Every structure is written in C-alpha cells, then in structure tokens.
Amino acid sequence: MARKFLYLVAAIIMLTVAAAFAYRLFGAQLIRQAMVPTTTFKAEPALAGNAYDDRRMWLARPDIPDNPALWTPRGYTPTTHPQAAVFFIHPTSYLNRAQWNAPLDDAEANTRAALFLRGQASAFNGIGAIWAPRYRQATFGAFLTDSKAALDARALAYRDVLSAFDAFLKQIGPNQPIILAGHSQGALHLTHLLHDRVAGTPLARRIVAAYVIGWPVSKTADVPALGLSECTTPDQAGCILSWQTFAEPADPSLIFDAFDATTGFTGAPRAGTALVCTNPLTGMPDDAAPADANQGTLYPAADLRTATITPGRIGAKCEGRGILSIGTPPDLVGNYVLPGNNYHVFDYSLFWANIRADAARRLSSFESR
After folding, report:
1. Beta bridge partners of residue 179, listed in sequence order
2. How many whole angstroms separate alpha carbon 237 and alpha carbon 245?
3. Lowest CB count within 10 Å: 65, 70, 71, 312, which one?
4. Helices in the chain by DSSP H: which ranges?
5. How many domains does the chain have?
6. Quick check: bond before 249 cis, omega within 30?
7. Residue 11 domain-assigned?
8. Would residue 115 count as lying in a domain?
9. Which residues pair with 24 in a beta bridge?
10. Which pLDDT tens digit goes with each residue over 243-277?
11. What pTM was estimated for this model as a whole?
C-alpha cells in the first residue's frame, strides 16, 4: 500500500510538472482556444445621448452608495474633500466567450469590475472623487486575436467610454482638475480618449496626469499625438505615466508581437519603438529602485474583497524596450500570473501606496502652477 501511494504521489508530481511545462510552452495558444469567442460579432446600437446622466450607468461616482472605489486598506482613508475628479476606466472583467461584448447588466462582470475598483481606483481616493462607468467592454478573448470581430468589439466598448467621459465633463466643476486612469483594456481606451478629447484642446490644461497602466505606449509613435508629454520628473503635472510589470525571467513577446504589428497614433509604425516605462516607486522614467522604496503592496485575502498593505517587499526597474521588472517572482500576491511571467493583473496592487503618493504629489504641483 505504501509503495502504491508513493507511485501515486510520483505520478501526480509528474503530471503537475508536465502541465506547468505545457503552459509555459503553449500558454498563449491554450488561452486563445479557451477564451476567444467563436460566434460572429453582433453590432449594437449606440447608447442614448443622455445614458450616463443615470447614476446606474456608473460603477463609481460621488453619489453612489457603497461606492467600491472608496475602499481602503487599514491605515488609509478616502478624502472627504476631493480636489480632483478622477475618470477611471476599469480593465476587462468579462471573461465569457459566448459573445464579444459584455451586457451592461452582466452580474459576474460587474462584480469583478467592482473588485478591480477596490484594488486599483482606490489608489486615487485620497485626493479625488472617482467616476468609473459601466461599459460594454470587449471580452477577454478580444485581446488575443486581431480579427475584425475583435477590433469591432473594442470599438463598440470605446464608444461607450467616450459617451461616459463626455457626460463626466458635464457633471464635474468647469475648472476642476482631472486625473485620467485606467488599466489594461481601460488603458487602451484611455489612449484613444487622450487622442480624441485631450490632444490639441483646452481640456489638456486641466489634466493632472494620465495613468495609462498595463497597456504599451510608444514614446515616438504614440505620445506626440496624445496631447500630454511623458512624465520625466516625480512632481511633473500634465503628463503620461505607463508601465507593464513582469517578473524574471520575463518574456514580453506576446505583448510585443501584437503591438509591433500596429500603427501608432502619429501614423508611424510601432515596431521596435521604445515604450513609456515610468517606475511607480520613483515617478521617474526608465528608472530603478530597491524594495525599500516601495511604500506598500496590497496582499489580497482569499476572497479578494480585503487586503493588507505591506511596505518594502518589492523593488522595480525599467529595462529593455520598456517593461517594468520586479526581479524574482515575489511572495504570493495572487494566482493570476500570465504567460511570460507577466504580472499584468498586479500592475496597481504591487505599487498601490506609491501610486497614491504619486497622484497627491502631481496634484500639488498642478495646483501650484
């Protein structure tokens, strides 16, 4: 019996190792097969022009009870006198491959989006009132293919975001400073928003900073057409921050291969161009910082609804074309590391306290101009 048990343990270990090896070799292909919809794209009508006047169209805004963006870990509290208005575009929370775009009333997607607001948008609640719209987001699989259906799904999602942003501008103070922030799909939509609503307009003068996190931004093919420059100092206002987090050994080829096949907002090809990499620990571009510069990482509880914050655990440095490396994979911060040692899901939580301090510092500089 003991020998049979040992054989069983050995077999389980071998299967586990084989599965991990297959994931490392074929992770991207496996994810595509599992997540990309096989249905045709369904065009949907535009939302009513006044749709975002209704607070039910928002996951977070100042007058919503139980606003998830007001969550903070122990030792922090949201401001009761917000100086800035924060427009936050949440990342992909719709994982269903049944259709290309999420229904606005999808309970699972909205619950997951609220969790993202707790762990991400909450970094800004020390200085600002946070507005985060529901939108018919493209499903996760729409970012694993460049098919026409995927591009159409992303475009539909962006139209909703644009409509929400226009409503946001009408409802906040006419001179109130604005922080723009997003992650992943939300950051992609934010780049288009910068190009379409900020670049070359008076609105650019009201932007404290744009946190385009978890989506690549080319220094030469994108930034010149986005209306704001790259942040070059920790206290600079009116600029763009961006990073994508990897542990070592890092393999960003999945990101680079897709990005390099596209054209930037300037009309120039993105292939081979350097990316904006702001080190969130210092607020400096292309910089390195040790773990003791980290003011606090969020470590989530098993239910993902609570978290503790621990300083001094994780350093970071920009390297290569512009990825943010955190070195050896850290102690468990969650179970969602993507192929290539991509810590995409943790782009905010790894540096939560530093992002909070960064936003406050840039707002102070903005107000003293």
Report:
1. 86, 209
2. 23
3. 65
4. 2-35, 107-119, 148-171, 185-193, 253-260, 352-367
5. 1
6. yes
7. no
8. yes
9. none
10. 999 999 999 998 999 999 999 999 999 999 999 99
11. 0.91
pLDDT for residue 201 is more than 90: yes
Give me the helices (H) in 52-128, please.
Answer: 107-119
Domain holding 78, by residue range, is 49-367
* pLDDT the model gives residue 359: 98
Would you state the structure tokens that stand for residue 156, as one six-digit string? Answer: 């539909």
Q: For residue 316, what are the CA distances in angstroms to 136, 283, 284?
A: 34, 12, 12
DSSP character string of 35-97: HS--SPP---PPPPTTGGGSGGGEEE-TT-TT-GGG---TT----SS--EEEEEE-------S
Residue 37 within any structural domain of the chain: no
Percent of the chain with pLDDT over 70: 90
User: Regarding beta strands 128-133 and 178-183, do their DSSP bridges make them parallel or antiparallel, or are they unpaired?
Assistant: unpaired
pLDDT of 16 reads: 33
Q: Which residues pair with 87 in a beta bridge?
A: 131, 180
1 in a structural domain? no
At 158-178, the pLDDT tens digits run 999 999 999 999 999 999 999
Phi-psi region of 45 (alpha: psi -120 to 50; beta: other; left: phi over 0): beta
pLDDT at site 295: 98
